[in-house]
Amino acid sequence: MLVQERKSKYKHKITMTPSTAGSEHRNIKEWCEKTYGPGGRRNRWRFGWTDKSDTYYFKSGKDAMLFSLRWSK
Predict the structure, then answer these.
(1) Using an 8 Å Cβ cutoff, are 67 and 32 in contact?
(2) Whole-prediction pTM value?
(3) Distance of CA 37 to the CA centre of its chain
(4) Host domain of residue 39
(5) Whole-angstrom distance, CA of residue 73 vs CA of residue 51
């Protein structure tokens, strides 16, 4: 898991490694929806992916910290 702070509306970027993200992807997204509400470009959090990793973006540092604590291994 890689956590970065950015100059963006979504200041906090968390990148999940393929071994973590692939098997738990559905569980992670369901948890985010229950915890933060719907995801998307105009909401509190959003999700993106590449061939190599899943990436979660958060507006709030508190939300990013809670996510990191819940899903870090």
Answers:
(1) yes
(2) 0.83
(3) 13
(4) 2-71
(5) 22
62: which residues sit within 8 A by CB, 6+ positions away?
none
Domains: count for the chain: 1
- What one-letter code names the amino acid at 59? K
Q: Which two tokens stand for residue 38?
A: 């719907």
pLDDT in tens, 9-64: 889 999 887 665 556 888 999 999 999 999 998 899 999 887 778 899 999 999 99
* Distance in angstroms (rounded) separating the CA atoms of residues 42 and 50: 21
Surface-to-core class of residue 55, CB atoms within 10 Å of its CB (0-12 exposed, 13-18 middle, 19+ buried): middle
Q: Which residues contact 50 (CB under 8 A, 6 or more apart)?
A: none
The 3-state DSSP class for residue 68 equals helix
